[in-house]
Every structure is written in structure tokens, then in C-alpha cells.
Amino acid sequence: MEDTFQSAYQDELRQLEIAQAQIDGQLAKLRNTPVYTGSDFTEQVLEDTREQRRQRLSRAENEPYFGRLDFQTGNSSAPSPLYIGKVGVNHGEDQEIEQENPLVVDWRAPIASLFYSFTGGLGPASYEAPDGTIEGLVYLKRNLVIRKRILQRVVDTYVRDSDNDQPAVSDEFLLYRLGENKDNRLRDIVSTIQAEQDQIIRAAKNTALMIQGVAGSGKTTVALHRLAFLLYQYQEQIRAERMIIFAPNQMFLNYISDVLPELGVGNIQQNTYADWAMNLLDLDAKLLPPSDMWSIWFESLDNRPVLNDDVSGRYKGSIRFRDWIDQSLEQLGTISVPETDFEAWDGKLLPLQTIHQWFFEEYKHYALAKRKERVLARINRWIEMELKPITNKVRLKDFKQKSSQRLKAYTKKWPEFNAFAIYKSLFQQGKRGDIFPSDRFESIPAGVVKQTNATLKNGEIRHEDLAGLLYIHVKLHDIESSSRFDHIVIDEAQDFSPFQVAVLDLFVRNHSFTILGDLSQGIHAYQGIHEWREMQSLFEAPDTAYFALTRSYRSTMEIIDFANGVLKHGVQTDLLAEPVFRSGHQVQVKSVAPEEEVSFIQKAIEQFHQSEYNTTALLTRTLEEAKVLYTKLETSGVNVNLIDGSKSEYLGGISVLPVYLSKGLEFDAVLLMDVDSHHYREGAMDAKLLYVGCTRALHELWVLYHGELTPFITN
User: Fold this and answer.
1) Please, where in the chain does CATH 3.40.50.300 lie?
2) What is the DSSP letter of 36?
């Protein structure tokens, strides 16, 4: 066995020398070619091609590939070795990358899908090429680790005619990569993409793809790799700058910011729903910060609100609310035109019938605000035409002044087609001259009307108002082509509302979505979804697809089993994670007296430091408790960061934060604070929050409490 390994290692060393020599030679020639800066179009195109090759070869310079697949088709006499990397590299500058046998195959190429989809067995394997299905036999699947031009690791995950044909999910190479410690950035997984992840990455573009992924299943990373694949596969149809990722907060966007550049992808927009919406609406109104619902929930232990569909956030995020807006707005168009002729000056009338014809017939295909804008502009042109024949300067001046004043007065009789003004009017009861149906409040919860009316009167809006405001904005102004997207990724989608997604569907072409989340981490049930059917119902059946990622790659078996136990006792769900066979330390459940808490944490941090962990999180129940703990630790000399939702960058190291702000992040070690029957008392929401905290840990999870342990932990 050792001889076989040494032989394989030497073979790969020789191949690496060949590949690096070719890459170095091509790159040196390109770098020595003067950059063209002239105005000749042909030369500009050639220079652009050279620059793309410079960038591609630069990314392959130190780590040219990560995998090898020996594949033999029916037309071949022997298997051909295919080396797979983050970028494709040809054998020479005059050859196309997509040639039959390139130096390095781009991981997104059709044939490279075999490297991910093949999980063992002696039968034929196949992949979908532009010309149809290609079938053949896999003889070797090999993982390689090359760092800074040095071959560090060679692992065969499949060798034909040997006993080593286990599925790649349990191979030694995957466990090696999973065991690496974390820093302050999410990394690409291009060398360890699993078969079920690859299926999602390569799914068709014009689909609302929904992914239910357990904690640690790699769903965020899969979505980012999917963006890179779509840009490769549909490069003539979509552009990076017309794609966008929606994430829960700016810190999370910072955490994932390195993945796409590592894959050679730039210019993809990244934003939160709130920031994007406020920029688009351009409102004078103030957006209130999201309320710390977890503090409210925690402090209302004896009188917790019922989170049903009539709660403001749930109702305003529902399709029921959208329909209510539609019904209320239905008559707005019919009564928009003031019911009077326009008299520019005494005796000069523009009949109401003519104005109606313009608004209801000639401009009926425009959005309401644009119809109003065009009618008023046309009235202004009519005035100019009527003034032209007048030669008497005194009369002309008088008529100009009168027509201007009367047009201003006439314009004020039209509704104000402003999203905020219309939205505010919707909730005002008994307003004089109310343009909306008087019975419109019969189907809306009274508490929602009262709360919203009070907020809007102060010139303020809540996050839950943004979907309705955007929807009205589109109804009034339509959507500029520059605001439309080719593809949208929604991360932590279980915290999005159906109405939010329905509005985003207006902004994306062909329902092209990647929507991902985990219902077991639905800790914002007051605004998010309770089941994926709420999202799926927004689309026609042919336009949507659903995938479930049940295997967790983040945490050890011990941590996953422990977290699953929390869900079993608190949620009674079947959405449980299946751990990869990576064993580690047992979860530590420790009773710690409050006066000993700081010294205990200091000892734990020292132990984690000795294990060479780069990131440690101390997760509290509420933000206020995080601030108190941060102050105690800082006073005791611990170098610690407080994450309170106001920062846009995750710095790594030791962090103190409330559990609900840790979603999407992962740490080498986690200390869960105050896991007692007071802080985690009862109900699915408490259990889900505790589950989120448990599943942030990669290698170590310590659960601390004093008094009585939470009922969600029974062992």
C-alpha cells in the first residue's frame, strides 16, 4: 500500500511540474506583452481577451487544480486523466479551453460534474454535454491538495478494481478538510462539493430553486458556487452585475465576501433587503431599527404573544396583505382623473372626455404615476399649442400666467402617486376625501391598522412595511430595466415573508431564484415562514424545484447528535441533521455559579487556544446579556469582540453575541451561556434558538448553566 501511495505521489509531482511549467510560460508571455491602450476596436477586443487569460492563469499559478478523474468513453481505447481546477487552462494560447483534453478542466465544465456526481461502483457513469449524454467508465478519482505550488496531499477516493469504492462523502479527504480550523471568512468548497450539492449548483437557471438545508449542510456556500456556475453556463444570457445576494445583515455579507472572488467571480451585488428597498424607494421616512424580538419574547415569559398570522409582521408578510392592497388600490386608477374640464383661461377648455381618452386609453399600459405624468405633460403641450396663435403680448402674458396657475391648481386635484403617501392613506380611517373603499378594514386585523397608522403618522416605517411599500411603488412607477435582476439569491429565507419574495419576483427575470434556509432555524417566526409551501405557492409548478440537504458537514457527530436532541424535545420535527462520520469531543454541559463565570470562561478560552482554535463564540440569550458579559470579560483583560448588530465586519477571534445574531456564522468553539430553565423555558421558538446556538460549533461545544438545566436537554 505504501509503495502504491509513493508511486502515485511521484506521478502527481511530475504532472504538477509539467502543469506549472506550462502555466508559468503562458503567464510570462502574457505579462511581457504590452497592454494595449489605443482606440482600435479590434485591438481592444484582443487586449480584453489577453487580460482575461492573465487573470485566469494568475488564479491557477499557485494552485492549478485539486482533483483528478480518469475517464474512458466508449470511443476511447484507454482512460484519459482529467485534472480539475477552479479555472480552466489550455495547453497553449492558440487552443480553446474547451478542447477535448485541456491541461486543467474548469470545475463548472460539464465533464467536471463527474468528479462530484460519481460516488463509486463498477457500472457506467455519465454526464450531460451540449451534444447529449456522454457515458463511460471511471477508473480513478483522486483528490489533491496543492498550496503555494507544493503538493501536500494525495488521496484516492476511488480506484477501479479495488476495495476502495466507498462513496466520497465518507472519504478521508473530506474529513481532512472538515477538520480544518476556521478564520473570520467563509471559504469555497470547490474541492469537496458533494453529489447532492452539485445537483443544486448545476440546476437550470429559470427556476425558483428552494433549498431546505440543515445547519452546516453548506447551503450558503452551495448558493455562491451556483452563481459562479450560472455565469459560466449562461455567459451569453446573464451578467454578474445583474445578480444579487440578499443576506440577513451586513456582517454576514462581509463573512461570505471572499467566496466569490476565490472562484474568480466579481461584481455581484450583495445587500440586505432593507437597505436595497430603502435605496429604491428613496423615502424621507425613517426606517425604525428591527426590534429585538428575542428580548421582548424573553422578557414576556408569563405573557408571551401568540405568533399567529394576525401578528403585524406575519400579516404584512402574507399574500393576504398583498391582495388587500390590490383590492384597496383597484379603484385608485378609476378615480385618478379629476372629474372636471380643464380651463386654461376663460373660455379655453380642454374637455374631460379628451383627458379621459388620454389617461384610460392611450396611456393605459403605463403605470399610474407615468400615466399621470404623461397626461399632465400633454396638457402642458396643449396649452403651448393654444398660446402660439396669440400675437398680442399683453394677452399672451396674461394667458401664460393664468394657464400656469390653473395647471398647478389642477395638478393638486390628482392623487399624490407616491408610495409612502398612498401606503399611509391606506391605513387612515375616516379621512376626508378618502379615495379607498370605506369597507377596506373589514379583512385586516384591527391591531395592525392601529399600530401602522401610529407609526406612519410619525414619518416612520417598520421593516415589515417595506414589502407593501415596494409593491405600491411598482404599481405606481413600474420597474426600470436597470433595476431588474438576472438571478436572485435569498439566504436565511425562512426569515423572509412570502410577500417579500413575491415582490422580488417582480424584479427578476423568469423566476430565477436560489432560495435557501432551514425551518429548524426559523427563530423569527413573527415575520418568516412556517413551511416551504408558503414560498412554493408563489410560483407555478413548472417554475419551481425543491431540494433538501440533510447531511451536516460543519460539526462533529457529538455536536450534531446533541443539537438534534434539542430539536426532538422542543420542536418534534423530522428535519434532523445527518452528521458526517467525524468524531470529536463530547459536548460539555457544565453547571457554573454566576460568581465563577468569568474565571471559568478564561480557563476555557485558554484550553481552546492550546487546541489552536482561531475562533470562539460566547452566545447569550439576549443582546443586553451579551453587553454585560462583554464588559465583564474586557474588564478582566480578555481580548474580546462584541457583536451587537451594528458592525459590518466579523473580525474572528473571541466574540460575544446573542444567539440570534450568530445565524450563518460558524466557530471552532462555542460556549452557550445561561442554558437554564429560565432562559430556555418552553416552546418551539426557544428550542430553535438553542439549536441555532449549538450548531454554530465546529469542534467544541460547551453548555453552561446555573440553577435548573433547560428541559430541552435531558441527558
Assistant:
1) 557-705
2) P
- As a whole number, mean pLDDT of residues 553-568 equals 93
For the ranges 89-103, 149-163, 196-210, 576-590, which has the lowest average pLDDT? 89-103
SS3 state at 669: strand
**Residue type (1 letter), 539:** F
For residues 681 and 595, is the Cβ–Cβ distance under 8 A? no
Q: Residue 535: what are its φ and ψ, rounded to 5°?
A: -80, -45
Query: Can you tell me which residue has the cell 417598520?
Result: 462
- Looking at the chain, the number of H-run helices and the number of E-run strands are 24, 24
Q: How confident is the model at residue 170 (pLDDT cuts 50, 70, 90)?
A: very low
State the chain's mean pLDDT as an integer: 88
Beta bridge partners of 208: 513, 544
Distance between CA atoms of residues 328 and 323, nearest Å: 8
Cα distance between residue 273 and residue 538, in whole Å:
19
Count of other CB atoms within 10 angstroms of residue 588 = 12
Burial class (CB in 10 A: 0-12, 13-18, 19+), 284: exposed
Cross-strand bridge partners of residue 503: none
341, 350 contact by CB (below 8 A): yes
Cell 483528478 found at:
68
- CB count in 10 Å sphere of residue 266: 10
Q: Which string of DSSP letters, residue by residue, matches 131-153?
A: TEEEEEEEEEEEEEEEETTEEEE
- Mean pLDDT for 268-278 is 94
Q: What is the DSSP string of 619-663?
A: EESSHHHHHHHHHHHHHTT---EE--S--S----EEEEEEGGG-T
pLDDT digit string, tens, across residues 482-502: 999 999 999 999 999 999 999
CA atoms within 13 A on the CB side of 668: 22
End-to-end CA distance of the chain: 43
* The residue type at 364: K
Q: What percent of the chain has pLDDT over 90?
A: 61
Find the range with the poorest average confidence among 70-74, 168-172, 359-363, 559-563: 168-172
Give me the pLDDT at residue 715, please: 65
In the DSSP assignment, the letter for residue 571 is: T
Distances, alpha carbon 405 to alpha carbons 14, 349, 387, 391, in Å: 86, 15, 15, 21
| 557-705 has CATH 3.40.190.10 classification | no
DSSP state of 42: H
DSSP 227-245: HHHHHHHTTTT--GGGEEE
CA distance 93 to 96: 8
